[in-house]
Amino acid sequence: MTSRRTKIVATLGPASNSPEVIEQLILAGLDVARLNFSHGTPDEHKARAALIRSIAARHGRFVALLGDLQGPKIRIAKFANKRIELKEGDSFRFSVTFPRDAGTQDVVGIDYPDLVKDCDVGDELLLDDGRVVMRVEGKNDEELHCRVLIGGPLSDHKGINRRGGGLTAPALTEKDKADIKLAAEMDLDYLAVSFPRDAADMEYARKLRDESGGTAWLVAKIERAEAVADDETLDALIRASDAVMVARGDLGVEVGDAELVGIQKKIILHARRFNKAVITATQMMESMISSPMPTRAEVSDVANAVLDYTDAVMLSAESAAGSYPVEAVKAMARICLGAEKQPTSQKSSHRLGHTFSRCDESIALAAMFTANHFPGVKAIISLTESGFTPLIMSRIRSAVPIFAFCPSRETQARVALFRGVYTIPFDPTTPRTESLSQAAVNELLQRGLVEQGDWVLLTKGDSYHTIGGTNTMKLLHVGEALV
Ligand SMILES: Nc1ncnc2c1ncn2[C@@H]1O[C@H](COP(=O)(O)OP(=O)(O)OP(=O)(O)O)[C@@H](O)[C@H]1O
Ligand SMILES: CC(=O)C(=O)O
Ligand SMILES: [K+]
Ligand SMILES: [Mg+2]
């Protein structure tokens, strides 16, 4: 399965718990399984992770596991009768002292004491992903007094965002700290940090990950208005992360849906510029929660993210709680392949006119320049320890597949997120009669990935246990397999 370059992330949930569905998701092209720590118990997540790993191994596939922290999503408390119905023009209050389980038609408790301090008269509050909108008309020490601008149902524990962002809740809650330990225990490959405000939030998450003994690469979810308010903050946040997610659910509520598309394009561009992988997420195939077919608008949304060169597209409720999880992955795979046929996604001007700061980066980009300009090159082999060299290679637009040859389980799974990069398990220290380069090329020949007469580019370092040690590039003509 090497012809699709854009990767597919799918959230697992009640609709995708059974071994049968998980197997079908993997066969349909799942590359990264997302475990959302906002829902479910640690045991449920462990059971899903174990299934993914064993079924993927059975099929010789490499699927990365991504844990997504709940973060400080601010929520209302509960209503006495579970839900109310608000009409335009109604007055409504949020109270930090009102009993937590006794909300009425007029008032509800709030689990975030600073809400009153953080909000001012004139602010707009969006509830339940923007389905209900209110304006703050007054406040005292304990309560916000609001007017309903857009009415609708409101039920227990729905989330609140402020239009324009700016709520000060810190990015990592006590639950998140426990889940960082859980992620380490589960050997997760990626860990997504929800609502980081700036680079410092990512640095703190990295410190906690290190203390927990985890090795997951950290994904910054871009979902606060402050994070995209200026390029300096956005770029610092991206640089402090290992990968980035355009978390359109919350980001769209904070910045407004009209500006979201332009901001998405900017995040993808900046993530790639700083050598990070990027995931485009949320409501990509929303109608497929209840329909076996995507709409034209959804097809167009996925295709445009592919043309903008996202590394991965993501399914949320479609695969976690919808009626057609497997169909949604299949539809995404088909749309990615179709969009990738456009030659615009095979050309690149990445870092033209820039200087490089690292040896491995220089070799990686020289390899891609050669691959894109020498038509005989049919494959790139990167003998890699951490996956960093193939990550940099895949920042360049190209139609040539990049094979990450790596011995460690972590790297084999990690590269599943990178666009156009595929895992080949390979231990460079195995004693062998032929040369290392010949052994690597034979591996591709035996898998039918290249044929006699093709050219293959290979990069490696002098010592195989040095991260960042790539210093060599070879251009190899494929002869007969040596067996
Ligand atoms: N593990 C799970 N258990 C139960 N329901 C789930 C699970 N994962 C997802 N869901 C359902 O799918 C919906 C969409 O999934 P998604 O991962 O986007 O969650 P979310 O509630 O928007 O969370 P967040 O904003 O924290 O990422 C959820 O609202 C929930 O109803
Ligand atoms: C994924 C997520 O958290 C969002 O889109 O808001
Ligand atoms: K989450
Ligand atoms: Mg979110």
Automatic annotation (TrEMBL):
In its keyword annotation, does this UniProt entry include DNA-binding? no
Q: Per the database record, which ranges form the Pyruvate kinase C-terminal domain?
A: 361-475
* Pfam families for the chain: PK, PK_C
Q: Where is the Pyruvate kinase barrel domain?
A: 4-329
PROSITE patterns assigned:
PYRUVATE_KINASE
Asked whether the UniProt record includes Transit peptide among its keywords, one would answer no
Query: Which UniProt keyword terms apply here?
Result: ATP-binding, Glycolysis, Kinase, Magnesium, Metal-binding, Nucleotide-binding, Pyruvate, Transferase
Q: State the needed cofactors, names only.
A: K(+)
Catalytic activity reported? pyruvate + ATP = phosphoenolpyruvate + ADP + H(+)
Concerning Gene3D superfamilies, the annotation shows: Phosphoenolpyruvate-binding domains, PK beta-barrel domain-like, Pyruvate kinase, C-terminal domain
Which E.C. number(s) belong to this protein?
Answer: 2.7.1.40
Which family, according to the similarity comment? Belongs to the pyruvate kinase family.
What protein name does the entry list?
Answer: Pyruvate kinase
Which species? Pseudomonas kuykendallii
